[in-house]
Amino acid sequence: MEMLKGFLFAWVIAFSLATIAVAQNDPSGFINIDCGIPAGSNYTDIITGLPYTSDECYVSGGVDSKISSIYEPNSPQRQFLTVKSFPLGTKNCYTLTPNEGKFGKYLIRASFLYGDYDGNAQLPNFDLYIGGDYWDTVTISNESTVIMKEIIHTPSTDSISVCLVKIDTTTPFISALELRPLNTTIYPTLSKSLKLFVRLNLGSLTNQYIRYGYDAYDRVWLPYYFEKMIIVNTTQEVLENSYRVPSAVMSTALTPDPLTTTDNSVSFNWIADSTRDRYYIYLHFAEVVELLVTQTRQFNIYINDNLFYGPMYPIYLSTATVYTVSPIYGADRYTVVINKTATSTLPPLLNAFEIYKEI
Ligand SMILES: *[C@@H]1O[C@H](CO)[C@@H](O)[C@H](O)[C@H]1NC(C)=O
Ligand SMILES: *[C@@H]1O[C@H](CO)[C@@H](O)[C@H](O)[C@H]1NC(C)=O
Ligand SMILES: *[C@@H]1O[C@H](CO)[C@@H](O)[C@H](O)[C@H]1NC(C)=O
Ligand SMILES: *[C@@H]1O[C@H](CO)[C@@H](O)[C@H](O)[C@H]1NC(C)=O
Ligand SMILES: *[C@@H]1O[C@H](CO)[C@@H](O)[C@H](O)[C@H]1NC(C)=O
Predict the structure, then answer these.
(1) What is the 145 CA–ligand 2 centroid distance (Å)?
(2) ∠ CA(278), CA(282), CA(287), 5° rounding?
(3) Which atom of ligand 3 lies at the shortest distance from residue 289's CA?
(4) What is the second-level CATH architecture of the domain 193-358?
(5) DSSP assignment, residue 293?
(6) 305 Cβ closer than 6 Å to some ligand 5 atom
(7) Of the candidates 171, 131, 165, which has an alpha carbon nearest to the alpha carbon of residue 151?
(8) 74, 122, 313, 359: most buried by Cβ count inside 10 Å?
(9) Do 2-182 and 193-358 share a fold?
(10) 182 Cβ partners below 8 Å, 6+ apart?
């Protein structure tokens, strides 16, 4: 058995509280910047209903451009039709000044669709920094693919700088920059920032991504399916917990398909750099099937064969989040296995999960 460093079974579980059952979609404190639209212009986005503004109050310099019209159909949202690029200078920064300043915790998302805006057909490659620290490298490998980089960040000052840094002969650019205040009690971490590794909505019935409107924090939930799994779902509202995963995400889940597998577990794995990568994991569960009195659904959660949490009984129409409070690290591969207990009559289910990497 491989022992994980830092893996002292440090988990916490957040249950739903009736007081926050109703999703209040209050976008106050959101900063929505559509980079590259004319200075002084603004609009209401038709998908999210959020008001977007131009970026001249947040950054100096840069050039506004439209993406090539051949890529316009690839743009799922209006924010991707224009970009701001920075041919001059090595480092160009946006300054965000959120309402709660350094007392807040924020989800910040930078989005990029190259769309051959410069007619050079040369795919850019550049670094992103936040508050002076390296965040990530943006490597555009396809002119028509949207890249989103997300971070959960607690700033040490009242303003936050998001910088684009030139690392070769290509020119940094950006399509949209968004900031959403989070409840400071969620995604607890010892580091200043967590960058998103993956966020999946398991067993979507629509195969559409879900974001603001449904998600009060405007996280983007991607639909995802595992082989040999079936979708279980409810048409009822699922109660939120402090993580506020929307009912639209929690009302579907994946569970092993008894017709194609005898394996009574839901599992997934990913490859890591054991010397560098440190992860935080958030597993979101809710029972979506009204069980008969003779039925039980009970399972254990293992990470690399270490019992992480269990036994777990998902509650009917109520979200519970099981999450790490300190990072797991030290392995080349992580395998999460959620398997039924000996007495459970039903196999496990999983509604959604998120994995973040420490910065
Ligand atoms: C656009 O800006 C004007 C002037 O500041 C403001 O009155 C209007 O409400 C804004 N519209 C949107 C959609 O943000
Ligand atoms: C970019 O992605 C599109 C859509 O997935 C694909 O059709 C195209 O071949 C890709 N282009 C390159 C250069 O890989
Ligand atoms: C699951 O979704 C399907 C399709 O929307 C719906 O017909 C069915 O009633 C749902 N199941 C439950 C238990 O609500
Ligand atoms: C943040 O979450 C805590 C714990 O769930 C809750 O008590 C508090 O009311 C929340 N604050 C806001 C502003 O939603
Ligand atoms: C559940 O999975 C863990 C980790 O793979 C394994 O060690 C354990 O034996 C499994 N338990 C059952 C009852 O299958």
Answers:
(1) 8
(2) 160
(3) 13
(4) Sandwich (2.60)
(5) T
(6) yes
(7) 131
(8) 359
(9) yes
(10) 104, 105, 106, 107, 152, 217
Q: Which atom of ligand 2 is nearest to the CA of 74?
A: 4
* CB neighbour list of residue 7: distance below 8 Å, 6 or more residues apart: 303, 304, 306, 328, 330
**Which tokens belong to 136?**
């990530």
Cβ count within 10 A of residue 222: 13
pTM summary value: 0.92
Residues near 116 by Cβ (< 8 Å), separated by ≥ 6? 67, 68, 70, 71, 143
* Dist CA 215 CA 236 (whole Å): 17
* CATH architecture group of domain 2-182: Sandwich (2.60)
Where are the chain's structural domains? 2-182, 193-358
Torsions phi, psi for 71 (to 5 deg): -95, -5
Of 355, 357, 353, which Cα lies nearest the Cα of 226?
A: 353
Q: pLDDT below 70 — which residues of the chain?
A: 1-12, 16-26, 74-75
165-200 residue pLDDT tens: 999 999 999 999 999 999 999 999 988 899 999 999
